[in-house]
Design brief:
The chain is mainly beta. The chain has a single domain, classed as Beta Barrel (OB fold (Dihydrolipoamide Acetyltransferase, E2P)). Strand 10 and strand 11 form a beta hairpin. This is Chemotaxis protein CheW.
Length: 152
């Protein structure tokens, strides 16, 4: 399995490459009032508003300043009771693509951060995969994505 690797602080994280639809440079965001602090705003993607989740803040870290290797990772996200929606993940220090041996993946065994999935260990150290399906709690999903049929 190929993963897009990024860092939060000194720790390495990955997102399965098959889930990433686009990698975008960081852009100006429209503020989103009443959203959790790890949702810095909305990205204007060719006229479509796309919520942004800051992965560093979600993991409990203070984000670094935007760097040359900070990117928005665009993914298709499963909101409650509807069709897939676009979601942008702000990832600091994106370092590239790495191939993982799926046979060497192991559960993290940590319940404190349900969005962190399996763990891979290798010569470059430990790498934790982000589980997109467990990324946001239900109340945040409802805040960011209007359910089908609720449109005014």
């Amino acid at each position: 399995m190929k993963v897009l690797v990024f860092h939060i602080g000194r720790e390495r994280f990955g997102l399965p490459l098959a889930l990433v639809t686009r990698v975008l440079p960081v852009a100006q965001l429209a503020r989103l009032p009443l959203a959790p602090d790890y949702v810095p705003g909305l990205l204007d993607l060719h006229g479509e508003p796309v919520p942004v989740v800051d992965l560093s803040r979600l993991a409990g870290h203070t984000p670094d300043a935007v760097r040359y290797d900070t990117r928005f990772l665009l993914v298709d996200y499963p909101p409650p009771g509807g069709a897939m929606k676009k979601l942008a993940l702000k990832a600091e220090c994106v370092s590239g693509v790495e191939a993982l041996d799926e046979a060497r993946l192991a559960p993290s065994g940590v319940a404190a951060a349900p969005f962190l999935g399996v763990v891979a260990s290798g010569e470059r150290g430990m790498l934790q995969l982000v589980d997109i399906d467990a990324l946001l709690p239900d109340h945040v999903r409802a805040l960011l994505f209007q359910a089908e049929g609720d449109a005014a």
